[in-house]
Amino acid sequence: MTNIVHKFMLAVLAAAIAGGLSLAVAAQDTPAPPHTKIGKPKIKGFPPEAPERDHGGTYEKAIAVAPNVNLTLCVTEGNLRVNGWSRNEVRVYVEGGPRFAFKVIDKGPDGRPVWISMTNLQATPGGNAECIRGETVEVDAPVGTSLKLTGKEIDAQVDGLRKVNVKTVGGDISIAISKKVSPPTPARAALRSKNPGARSI
Fold first, then answer.
1. Residue 69 covered by a domain
2. pLDDT band at 183 (very low <50, low <70, confident <90, very high)
3. Which of 2, 34, 67, 128 is 20 to 30 A distant from 83 in Cα terms?
4. 153 — pLDDT class (breaks 50, 70, 90)
């Protein structure tokens, strides 16, 4: 009897060892699944909002110039008023627009600027840094000034300058010739245009 039990135990042990070896071989033969890198989940959010336009502030600057200065001015938006006065100085006042500065392009023998333009110190990327804008832009310049004005969607009034060259896209322009340099014909001539183009007086 003891001999039979002993044989039975040996058979069970042999079967257990054989089963374990079979499982080990099967585990070695089965290839492990490829390791997949799991990154951070991409969360689709709303597209970035366009930055709100800066409504600007109020700025005023002045510069001493030659009496027959050449002024290059570009205004892309707003109500523009340019007036001739007796001072040898250019004054620019901007309300509701960006900060700006004068750019001296050329000077005369006495060191006074004979050609100036404007520089937008807060120009947007891709924008023209030579153009300013504002709800109101006022310019006072010597009556001997030669003005080259480029505008877009502006309402402009120019009065009392020696020479004016205007190129606009849209808007409304009113120009009056200075009495000091007006021809024998009427002392004041007005030019109004609502169409794009260039005009010289």
1. yes
2. very low
3. 128
4. confident
Residue 115 · residue 190 · CB < 8 Å: no
pLDDT at 134 over 90: yes
Q: How far apart are CA 194 and CA 189, in angstroms?
A: 17
| 24 within some domain | no
Give the range of the structural domain holding residue 119, as residue numbers without chain letter.
Answer: 57-194
In a domain, 126, yes or no: yes
**pTM above threshold 0.85:** no
Q: Which of 19-28, 87-96, 187-196 has the lowest mean pLDDT?
A: 187-196
Q: Is residue 178 part of a domain?
A: yes
* Per-residue burial over 76-108, b = 16 or more CB atoms within 10 Å of its CB, e = otherwise: bbbbbbbbbeeeeebebbbbbbbebebeeeeee
